Amino acid sequence: MLDKINEVGASKATFYDLLGGEQGGTAAIRELVETFYDIMDTDKKAAPIRAMHPADLTASREKLFMFLTGWTGGPQLYIERYGHPFLRRRHLPFSIDESARDQWMYCMISAMHQLKMDEKLMQKLAEQLYGVADFMRNQ
Ligand code: HEM
């Protein structure tokens, strides 16, 4: 497992592979996204970013699941359905500052801990996601 993790970045194993690939990567991402939004929905620390989202999180859950499946190296579900994500542009209607970015990361890292993800994998995944979250910042 550790050897495989070290291969991320050397373009051998993708995060999708490390999360289980065809044998479970999709289920692992689904579980991560469900837990992420459950935390956002209930933890007061995330209340400001929760308020930016629709009351019903069903579509948000589905879209993030589809996006992350492709982003981690699995099937490009989001792109197949919606085309290019233009992720930063799609976030422009929301005021995303450092605090919003950190709340998003807090939900994601809490979800990874709750699911007892492998420490090294968690660290690498969080590092990469932080880059994306910081890129969404528009304040
Ligand atoms: C930095 C803090 C972030 C905040 C406050 C934030 C907030 C939001 C909000 C309010 C929406 C619109 C409601 C919805 O469709 O769920 C949205 C959509 C979305 N976000 Fe974020 N987001 C953040 C970071 C990220 C990151 C890091 C990713 C990916 C790794 C991401 C992926 C998406 C996707 C895929 C959508 C759906 C876009 C679409 O409408 O097709 N977001 N986000």
Could you write a compact summary of the structure shown?
The protein is mainly α.
Q: What's the overall average pLDDT, rounded?
A: 94
CATH homologous superfamily placement? Globins
Count of all domains: 1
Number of separate strands: 0
**Element string (H = helix, E = strand):** HHHHHHHHH
- List unreliable stretches of 5+ residues: none
Biggest sheet overview: none
Please tally the helical runs, counting DSSP H or I stretches of 4 or more residues.
9
Give the distinct bound molecules.
Answer: protoporphyrin IX containing FE
Account of the 3D structure:
By secondary structure, the chain is mainly alpha-helical. The protein has a single domain, classed as Globins (Globin-like), CATH 1.10.490. The protein is 65% helix and 0% strand. The protein has 9 helices and no strands. The protein is globular, with a radius of gyration of 15 Å. The termini are far apart. The mean pLDDT is 94. The structure holds protoporphyrin IX containing FE.
Reconstruct the topology from this structure:
Elements: H1 2-6, H2 15-18, H3 25-42, H4 47-50, H5 58-71, H6 77-82, H7 87-91, H8 98-114, H9 119-135
Helix pairs in contact: 3-5, 3-8, 8-9
The structure holds protoporphyrin IX containing FE.
The site of protoporphyrin IX containing FE has 20 residues, from α5, α7, α8 and α9.
